[in-house]
Write a structure and sequence with these properties.
The protein has 13 helices and 14 strands. It has helices spanning about 20-30, 50-55, 65-70, 80-95, 125-140, 150-160, 175-180, 190-200, 205-210, 215-220, 225-230, 260-280, 315-325; strands spanning about 10-15, 35-40, 45-50, 75-80, 105, 110-115, 145-150, 165-170, 245-260, 285, 290-295, 300-305, 335-345, 345. The protein has a five-stranded mixed β-sheet with strand order 5-6-1-7-8. The longest helix has 21 residues, at about 260-280. The protein starts with 11 loop residues before the first strand and ends in a 16-residue tail after the last strand. Its cofactor is Mg(2+). Keywords: Cytoplasm, DNA damage, DNA repair, DNA replication, DNA-binding, DNA-directed DNA polymerase, Magnesium, Metal-binding, Mutator protein, Nucleotidyltransferase, Transferase. Monomer. One of its GO terms (biological process) is SOS response.
């Protein structure tokens, strides 16, 4: 579906640093270059980032470190240095600000830019190319960029030629591009939702586009309208430079209902790793931990606990979640879904180092 010609076509760029944390480490330590590198800890830790050399073995972020070591025995683990990553991120954002005030950071290593009213006689593609060159000059790192007429497509485009690539999806090609992709590539469709779609025979964007809005909303609730739109290359979300994040969360739906409390604690540990990683990446801290539980019969509850101060570590957050789970776990239907959310967010103080011991074991 081509955008309505009566509507102004936006010029959106999504810039994504390539294997950001690992690339910073390889930049700063020549001995790591060309080798499989993971940022994180070996014992009881998870991979925060993996170099492209490590990814060839199947190593991915948020993967348990011990599993990563089994996949890649030569994997080199490096302790995270979030103060360095934040400093590099500030260099990159300063470059963005020279081209447009409409910059929406998603994390330390990626952001949307709206160039619609800030082309100054150039084009979004030329500016994206220039930004990538300036990032390389200023930081010694590479970035990939996607250019399109909305945020959804720009983010998809930035993935097409990684690392160090540039890809453009013009308005007339948006719907066709989306419909040729497997649904697992869609941002906003996670593994559990993809599995549900596949159960309905929805394997690609084209399959998704053939579904009616009523069908999608009946099966996927309020997200149905979003899926209907993106399958047609439609995304009306604006780039919001002053986006204030209210919470950071992670959840997972299990193919087999959890009935053992020890297994549930392990599942919560994986979620805590993910939430704490995102919290640290965004340089945020929070005071309220919320547990979400969905039972096998689809009943859903939430339980929350707030502290008078910020939660200090991943381990403290996990302990709070486990305490919230204890009185509500026993149910004859088992647990279908678990989720952890950290809210009451505020910026971490710049004069204190991020606490990483719970997430990235320092061995």
């Amino acid at each position: 579906m081509t955008p309505d010609p009566t509507e102004r076509i936006r010029r959106i760029v999504h810039v994504d640093m390539d294997a950001f944390y690992a690339s910073v480490e390889q930049r700063d330590d020549p001995a790591l270059r060309g080798k499989p590198v993971a940022v994180g800890g070996i014992q009881r830790g998870v991979v925060a980032a993996a170099s492209y050399e490590a990814r060839r073995y199947g190593v991915r972020s948020a993967m348990p470190s011990m599993r990563a070591m089994r996949l890649c025995p030569d994997l080199i683990f490096v302790k995270p240095r979030f103060d360095v990553y934040r400093a590099v991120s500030q260099q990159v954002r300063a470059i963005f600000a020279e081209y447009t005030p409409l910059v929406e950071p998603l994390s330390l290593d990626e952001a949307y830019l709206d160039l619609t009213d800030h082309l100054n006689g150039s084009t979004a593609t030329r500016i994206a190319k220039e930004i990538r060159a300036r990032i390389r000059e200023a930081t010694g790192l590479t970035a990939s960029a996607g250019v399109s007429y909305n945020k959804f497509l720009a983010k998809l485009a930035s993935d097409q030629r990684k690392p160090d690539g540039l890809f453009v999806i013009p308005p007339e090609a948006g719907a066709e591009f989306v419909q040729g992709l497997p649904i697992g590539r869609f941002h906003g469709i996670g593994p559990a939702t993809a599995a549900r779609m596949e159960a309905h025979g929805i394997l690609t964007g084209a399959d998704l586009a053939r579904q009616s809005l009523d069908f999608l909303t009946a099966r996927f609730g309020k997200s149905g309208a979003y899926y209907w739109n993106i399958s047609r290359g439609i995304d009306t979300r604006e780039v919001k430079p002053d986006r204030i994040r209210k919470s950071i969360g992670a959840e997972n739906t299990y193919f087999e209902d959890l009935r053992d409390i020890a297994a549930a604690h392990e599942a919560l540990a994986v979620l805590a790793d993910k939430v704490w990683r995102h919290t640290t990446t965004a340089a945020l801290r929070g005071r309220t931990v919320t547990l979400k539980v969905k039972y096998g019969d689809f009943r859903q509850i939430t339980r929350a606990r707030s502290l008078p101060r910020a939660v200090e570590s991943r381990d403290e957050m996990l302990e709070m979640a486990c305490e919230l789970l204890a009185p509500v776990f026993a149910d004859p239907h088992g647990v279908r879904l678990l989720g952890i959310t950290l809210s009451g967010l505020e910026e971490a103080r710049q004069d204190e180092p991020p606490r990483q011991l719970g997430l990235f074991d320092q061995a």
